[in-house]
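Per reviewer request, we include the raw input and output of the structure prediction for the construct analysed in the revised manuscript.
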Amino acid sequence: MPKKYKTQTNLYSHVKHHHSVHRYTCPEDGCCKTFAYRSKLDLHVSTHKPSLLYHCPSNACKSVCSTNKSLKAHVRHQHTHVKVYNCSVCSFHTENHASLNNHMRSKHSTGWMCDLCYQKFQLQTSYYRHVKKCVGPKEQCTGCVYPLL
């Protein structure tokens, strides 16, 4: 049975990732990896060159990241636990944006609403469960059974 996709963009990403010719090949000797996206190749190439990797500054941690941005996120989440996202309504604070959004919707909002049938839900998990089942126009890949990306 063909996999169905909610949007044409998701279908396009799936087809490009799983069915297209991967145009970008790792230049490292002995490495045969190929990639559909140049950005994915660039991240991969940095794993071959230790000088391009970002090492965690904590002596007790051996984590290595391929970008400075991911290293900063690692340090913030694993070592500092800085609560940088504050609720504008109450005293709640958290270290990531997704948690703040979830808090705002569950504590200070009327809830989640399905764009297809307009049914409302108080919990995000109930909303997502419903959306997966709710009938709507879906794009599908007829070439395989890969899961939704």
